[in-house]
Design brief:
212 residues, alpha+beta, 60s Ribosomal Protein L30, Chain: A, 2 domains, five-stranded mixed beta sheet, 5 strands
Amino acid sequence: MRALISLEGESGANEMAGASRWMVSYADFVTLLFVLFIVLYVSVPKVKPTAVADTHPESTASSKAEQQKMQAELQEALQGLVESGDVSLTTREDGVLLEIKDTALFSSGTAQLARASEEVILSLVQTLQAKTNRLVIEGHTDNVPIQTAVFPSNWELSAGRSAAFVRALQEQGIEATRLAAAGYADTRPKADNATLEGRSKNRRVSVLILNM
């Protein structure tokens, strides 16, 4: 019996020793692989990122040419209003920006388009109807608070004015899918609200004619 126990003990110890040797060999193999991958990674030359050059300079030139053509067409169509200072035109990276004084479109404190606004709207429609540019209409106010039953704040007034202008353009033939309206209240002034002149410049409707 003692001999049997002794033999069983030696057999178990031999099995454990064999398993340990196998695990050691496997661990050595994994370690070698890890070292190999590190050596390969270090040996690969590092390529510094380079700025992506404009591969289509002709596209940029085309956009600028289209902007200049659009601005010239609008300048001609709205010449009287440009000369009076009621309308201004500038170009931006994303398109042509047309800014219209509120007095050329609305009575004070309302979002109802006045009869005088017909000249602006019809001139815009005649110039833009055959084109496909998207138009973003933005309403802006000065920082003088307004609180009426219709407009609790300048947010409602600016949004109401841009929506009224969008609706008028659509009624005159501009597709609704080309139009978007936004109201910014007094959050994007173009002049100092501390002066009468500055506040007058800030009360406006902007028409951004986006590049194609």
